[in-house]
Amino acid sequence: MPDFKTLDDLPDDLTGKVALVRVDLNLPMQDGSATDVTRVEAVKPTLLELTDKGAKVLLLAHYGRPGGMRSSVLSTSFVQGDVERVLGKELMFIPEIAGPLVDQALGILRPGDIGLLDNTRFWPGEEENDPNLAQAMARSGDFYVNDAFSAAHRAHASTEGIAQFLPAYAGRAMEAELTALDQALGNPETPVAAVVGGAKVSTKLAVLEHLVGKVQHLIIGGGMANTFLAARGVNVGKSLAEHDLTDTASKIIDEADHAGCTVHLPYDVVVAKEFAANPESLRTCNVHEVAEDEMILDIGPQAAEALADVLKTCRTVVWNGPLGAFETEPFDRATVALARTAAALTQEGSLTSVAGGGDTVAALAQADVTEDFTYISAAGGAFLEWMEGKDLPGVKALHAANG
Predict the structure, then answer these.
(1) What gap in Å lies between CA 62 and CA 25, rounded to an integer?
(2) Same domain flag for 160 and 206
(3) Where does residue 151 fall: left (phi above 0), alpha (psi -120 to 50 degrees), or beta otherwise?
(4) What is the pLDDT of residue 58?
(5) Active-site residue, 81 included
(6) Cα–Cα distance for residue pair 148/202, rounded to 1 Å
């Protein structure tokens, strides 16, 4: 049983009740319409469930970074049409987030209707988590639903503060995310493998330090692997590597040894003299054979196969970051191969696979396995902070509301 309340804990009839629902409507826009509505599709089940039960729903959302001031180009009204298309319902736009105008709108809205409040970040109290603003917003609602995991790492008035003043519940997307994350690192089936890739060790130091004590296998890829190889005395040529962090990398390897965690680094790699699609200088070699004028751009086929064998011995994998420079062919091969192995094992029922982060989502889409993983999180910063073992204020508030 989760230690937070979900929509299942609400009555079946919510007629006359007002639900304040925190959603993520920070959509990528081009020529006045959204290029990707995944975030709206994620919250659709929550919103339709609440409206079907007769609640009046007020959407709380931020859009861009207006810095506590109104901006004519950062109003949530810009995404209203996209949200209406996904939900199949008209919304009433309300150019405030609290006060008489919101009360007036609630008098017009009927049970099952949805109001879209303006950008919460127009008010400086939002990012300062001002309790007065949180309380002012809370006055409009009977209960609060957080369905924006991607904003849960921020202690803002609409993500954390408001839960101090109203009964708080996790929406369906938030519930699915928290359940998946618990399966991945909270109470996972062991052995657990973590795949951590990306360009720089410096951006994922806290992740690596946290994971070595939590997982049995740590698979390191991307430019990060080059820093670890350099720490082991491998000459990585002109590969992207943070040579000033080799001592840190060595320390992480030592900590992993003490914790009984195996660190997997590639022993064959794909190299080239220039970073371009299908370069003439492309070759695969042992890590000890990288020339001074070559750069490592992917892990090799033998290493990829060995990692696939590791996943076959595991019950859980948590994945953040690609293994190579996946945006450019053929440096996507190892990422695609390992992703397809993880997807096949998931479909067989032998592996729980949870992945997250922007690059990761793109890489898994490239491998055509998005539907085959147990759970893929679209949250970037929040997913990374969760992998670092940090408490996420928006999540903590839901737990506290039930404590």
Answers:
(1) 7
(2) no
(3) alpha
(4) 98
(5) no
(6) 27
Given the residues 99, 186, 213, 358, select the one marked as catalytic: 358
Decide if 269 contacts 323 (C-beta within 8 A): no
Catalytic residue among 5, 17, 22, 39: 39
Banded model confidence at residue 183, pLDDT cuts 50, 70, 90: confident
Q: In sequence order, what are the beta bridge partners of 59?
A: 21, 116
Q: How many CB atoms lie within 10 A of CB 261?
A: 22
- Note if 358 is an active site residue: yes
Rounded CA gap, 336 and 342, in Å?
A: 10
User: Is the alpha carbon torsion for 28, 30, 33, 36 positive or negative?
Assistant: negative
Domain presence at residue 61: yes
For β-strands 143-146 and 168-170, DSSP reports them as parallel
Catalytic residue, from 112, 237, 380, 381: name it: 381
Which residues neighbour 120 within 8 Å (Cβ) at sequence distance 6 or greater? 60, 61, 62, 97, 126, 156, 157, 158
> Cα Rg for the chain, rounded, in angstroms?
23
Last residue of a domain, one of 149, 174, 199: 174
**What pLDDT does 402 receive?**
65
The model's pTM: 0.88
Q: What does the alpha-carbon distance between residue 52 and residue 56 come to, in Å, rounded to a whole number?
A: 10
Closest alpha carbon to 264 in 366, 190, 165, 194: 194
Asked, for residue 400, whether it belongs to a domain, the answer is no
Set 89, 200, 273, 283: catalytic member: 200
Cβ density class 52-78: b for 16+ within 10 Å, e for less: ebbbbbbbbbbbeebeeeeeeebbbbb
In three-state secondary structure terms, 94 is: strand
HSE-up of residue 1 (Cα within 13 Å, Cβ side)? 5
Cis status, amide bond into 322, omega within 30 of 0:
no
Task: Say if residue 313 is in the same domain as residue 355.
Answer: yes
Strand, helix or coil at 320?
A: strand
- The residues facing 169 across adjacent strands are 145
Poorest-pLDDT segment among 4-18, 87-101, 260-274, 348-362: 348-362
Considering its fold, how many domains does the chain have in total? 2
Token couple for 166: 């109203």
